[in-house]
Amino acid sequence: MKVKVRKDTGKPMSMEYEPMLNDIIIPVMGPSGVGKSTFINYLAGENVVRVGHDMQSCTTQPQPIVVSPPPSILFRDRRLVLVDTPGFDDTFAAESEILDRIASWLAHVYSADTKLGGLIYLHDISLPRMKGTSLRNLEVFKKLCGDRALRSVVLGTTKWTELESHSVGEQRLTELRDKYWLEMIERGSIVHNFDNTQQSAWDMVDSVLAYDVIIPVIGVTGVGKSQHEVVVGDDLQSCTDKVQPVIINPILVNSRKASYHGRRLIVVDTPGFDSTFGDDSTTLKEIVENLAAKYGPDIKIGGIIHLHDVNLRPHHDFHKYLDKICELFIEPRMLILGTTKWGGDGTRRAERERKLDSLTNHYWSKLIKDGAKICRFTGSQDSAWMMVEAILDDKNNLHRTEVLQIQEELVRAKKLVPDTEAGQHLRYSLDQLLKTLKSKEHSTDSPSIETLNPAQIAGIRAQIKALHIPFSQRVLRFFGVPAPKNK
């Protein structure tokens, strides 16, 4: 199979990749022969990586491939980079060496301040059961990610055409969901079937990048927050005394040409400050706790819409509570300062314009300088959507980024690969395999003693040794001396 190369250098395009700050990077991982390279080729619409047609791996190093995405607001001004990775059961390299290669590459992109968009983990559905190497592959992958990043993982099944019947695949998929993948699914991972089409490949990428766009609407009591949600596209009762998330109808979203690839748009009506139902500190605490309970403690707010009656001066603690709510969430990218109660009385129009100038030049000047936008809510659907679209159009708000546990361990904690969670787990798994072989107490998930010759057993012992941190390096770490960088 011919691989796409640059005409000027003759080198594969993946070899010339240098991470850029706005790259959307998605590693594609899984055992050797599962179809990682095939998946990337379908996604790209052409042969950009070599594909093996047997169980031998064609990928020995992480290979980043820059893929041209379809026109979309999601990818505006960004490159999509799929990373073909070797499996831990690679034909030509030990599992410890593969872990070191993948970990080093991930540390490199993290050091370049480039974060991942998510991960895709592929599994061959034609395999009748999960073998020992497949289980180790999966468990090391989980440790490499860490619990938090599992929310951005798509678990993909491949090779459905090699099954005797579709029902057999469904039974195996049920076992994967209920047993091997259960913990990952509970932490937010999504399951997809890859059917060897470009559309199914893109559906999986869309699922990796998909997350809820949550937009709280805050302000004093009676400013018109509930009316804003009604006009955007849903019915709410007024006099809100609790946090009310409203999932906007996808048909309305698409009609506004605000496509964001499967992400839900959730506009959150909140109790008003100066509320008759409680003091401001209680109101703020309730907003934060309710959103964290519904969407997780590391919730990402797409933006905040603050509504203000143009006829009134700002709330006396305006900066205090607005700064506080911004601090409590992960980097709200956009703040919309919306004015309400413009009315239809033309005689007071000039007076309201003067008050808006006062808000803009005095009370809100610092916020505007920091990037906040001014919008008017006039009671129309167009004016309500103008605020929402200003948040959706923010290119910094289009996708969630992830930092893997192993990246933090290697770069921030300065650990060596053997001392990471993934390294420790791989060492433990290999050690248990040796003990099983020695005792000849073989489980159904472990290779029998006849399948491993003395050279292979010696190789496992060598891997276990390689995954132990030398005493000299432990001493250096004890005295706070940074460990040598991975080669």
UniProtKB/TrEMBL annotation:
Organism of this sequence: Laccaria amethystina LaAM-08-1
InterPro entries the UniProt entry points to: GIMA/IAN/Toc, GTP-bd, P-loop_NTPase
Limits of the G domain: 28-107
Pfam families: MMR_HSR1
Membrane-traversing stretches: none
Record protein name field: G domain-containing protein
PANTHER family in UniProt: GTP-BINDING PROTEIN A, GTPASE, IMAP FAMILY MEMBER-RELATED
One Gene Ontology molecular-function label: GTP binding
